[in-house]
Amino acid sequence: MRTNRIVQTAVLALLATSIAVTASPAATAPEPRFNGQHYRGRGDIEYLRLLDTARRMFEPDPELQNLSMFYEPKWDGFVEGPTWDAWWIQNSYGTTYSILPLLREPFVTFLQHAQDLWFDQMGDGHRTGAAPPFDWVAPDGCLCDAARPGWIVYKQGDGRTAIHDWGMEFTAAGVLLQSELLLISRDPDALAHYLPRLERSANFIETRRDPTNNLFLAGPAGNLLAPSYAGWHRPDGSYGQAYLAGLSITYIAALDRLIELEKLAHHPAQVSLYTSRRDLAKQGLPRLTTEDGYFIRSLDPDGVKHGVFGAPQHGYFEASPNHDAIAFRVADDAQSDKIYRKIASLPGLRPYDFVLPNYPSYDDMYEKPEGLWGYGTWVNGGHWSTCEARMVLAYYRLGQFDDARKSMRRLLTFAERFRMDNPLTKCGSDVYQPNVPINLCYDTFGPAAAFMRGLFEYLYRANGLTLIPHIPPAIEELQQLDPVRFGQKKLFLTTVGRGPVTAVKVNGRNWKQFDAASVFLPYDKTPSVAHIEILLGNAKSPTGRASVPASPDSPVALETKPPSPELAALDQRVGQLREFHRRLGKTGLGETSEAAHVQLALDCIQTAHCRQRLLQAGRIKPLAGPAEAAADKSYVETAQKLCTGLDAVLKSSETATAATSRKIYAIWREIPH
């Protein structure tokens, strides 16, 4: 069974150094080969290994904190982290967008349930938010800062909330995330359910358009990385609305996706409406652009600009609108290159490889830059991995692979210590919560997710998917072993060679829909399982390539001490869960999210045992001090939560309206308990 392979694949990952073969000095020698758990290839072994490590973070893994650890049974979905009991738009933004093409079940369902916390409680002009002091009644279509069941905060909840604007850029980002999820899944029922809500959110943002310049007004904390932005500091000392660059850029990127959803839903009038709105918003961007080609942070109604680097007043560089404009293709190639050159010219913006939101310190916050607001700590110069994810996507688009490599290397310095915290203080060099034994935040997985998405960019549209290969030139061959989601279809991608695209094969047959920079896959012509080989430069398709056999597993010592009572209790459920999974498969329900949930629970129980075996065999270095016990406990707690959540899901299926859910429950009842 798959669970029985977890120990083997985990050991293989840890033995990667024995898998990489170094080429001999001879001129005819092949590039060194890497055979990982998720990526294989020839060429730059370190880069390939970093890719493989990045992917391991999104599956149960005995050595690395991973995506399964964010499961929250209270709402059968993801949570921000053990110390953050809700789901934030800004914090999840970079990670979610980046991992979506590679996300599998039940994680797709978990993510949708988390985002439902925003959309099921979105502002309607009547609903009251969280308890005082957050009990605001938001306008129709307004999303939020964060939410959990029965609790939603429509404005940024930190700082001087009395003067804060609604979550303006939060709403735009939420529309983008949900639209991207729907474009990938192409589920007509989900499209019918969410599209009216997305339209309401877009209409809400439109209320802030100034028709005289096609810019968008936002007041204090109306930005995505709130509450660093104070809006317009009026002459009378109060704070009002200014034209926020990030709102324009994020909204344009969201509309790009909403337009495609309207096409998918066959709504020509809405396609025309949102296309017009997007194009008008683009017309406003030059007013927010400096002579050097990068975007400022904001423009006051009286003409004062914020974020012109080196200016006597407000002379900082604002990173988010700039790397987002590149990552989401709001900026064209020429402007994107100018923006990157400006970023590269500012060493203070990336002192520890990760990008900061601003450099130097803000001089226009409504609080003094000291304490939590001091430079390098929080929203003023502290590092946020959600932003780094979009920065990494920008690196890939522009071919700046060394920058992406540095980002992933830096992330591992935290991952290897179980210190996946956010924000990162001291300008990105230290954790925000140093007094807990280990840290875990969803944001922090963003750079790893982007390190993978950046390889092919993945532009999902109503009529198909465009792949834009961004393969480091030192990699001669790349095989991505995990499938890419494309509706109900699965894509397995391979590249061979270096340079422009010169040929493409799909399931061994020549494919004509490509150009030098991209490959287009119409949905109706793409096979349900497609093995796509992209030839670059002068490369030729290897003939007779044999599949690379897995390296033999090295002996791993069995656990010499009995499992904890908690893990032993989980072991008692293994037989029952395996039988349930077997019966689901036998009755044609093996591809359901419930079946995937069962398998994930089994995998996590096995992974907890695997970690103990590898520790005892000396294959994993124990964490220092109390961190090791906390790490071990987190593996058991993850499996416990998955089992608890599964029980709740199955119980609710007893009275479900969907026939499939009731059938799953009936099978569950037949299993001896």
Largest sheet: 7 strands, mixed
CATH topology of the largest domain: Glycosyltransferase
Radius of gyration: 25 Å
CATH secondary-structure class of the largest domain: Mainly Alpha
Content-based structural category:
alpha+beta
Mean pLDDT, to the nearest integer, reads 94
Instruction: State the CATH architecture of the largest domain.
Output: Alpha/alpha barrel
For the record, give the distance between the C-alpha atoms at the N and C termini, rounded to a whole number: 22 Å
Describe the structure.
The chain has three domains: 13-63 and 457-536, Sandwich (Maltose phosphorylase, domain 3), CATH 2.60.420.10; 67-347 and 357-453, Glycosyltransferase; 565-670, no CATH class. The protein is an alpha+beta fold and 673 residues long. The protein has 19 helices and 27 strands.
Protein traits:
single chain; 673 residues; alpha+beta; Maltose phosphorylase, domain 3; Glycosyltransferase; seven-stranded mixed sheet; five-stranded antiparallel sheet; 19 helices; 27 strands; 40% helix; 14% strand; globular; disordered N terminus
What's this, in brief?
With 673 residues, this protein is of the alpha+beta class. Helix content is 40%, strand content 14%.
Produce the secondary structure layout.
Layout: H1 6-14, H2 16-19, E1 33-35, E2 39-43, H3 45-56, E3 71-72, E4 77-78, E5 87-88, H4 89-99, H5 107-119, E6 146-148, E7 151-153, H6 168-185, H7 188-206, E8 209-210, E9 215-218, E10 232-233, E11 239-240, E12 242-244, H8 245-264, H9 268-284, E13 298-299, E14 305-306, E15 317-318, H10 320-327, H11 333-344, E16 358-359, H12 385-397, H13 401-415, E17 419-420, H14 425-428, E18 430-431, E19 439-440, H15 446-453, E20 459-461, E21 464-467, E22 475-486, E23 489-497, E24 501-506, E25 509-510, E26 519-522, E27 529-536, H16 565-586, H17 593-616, H18 627-653, H19 659-670
Parallel strand pairs: 17-19, 23-27
Antiparallel strand pairs: 1-2, 2-22, 3-4, 5-6, 6-7, 8-9, 9-12, 10-11, 12-13, 13-14, 15-16, 20-21, 21-26, 22-23, 24-25, 24-27
Helix pairs in contact: 1-17, 3-15, 4-6, 4-12, 4-15, 6-7, 6-8, 7-8, 8-9, 8-10, 10-11, 10-12, 12-13, 12-15, 16-17, 17-18
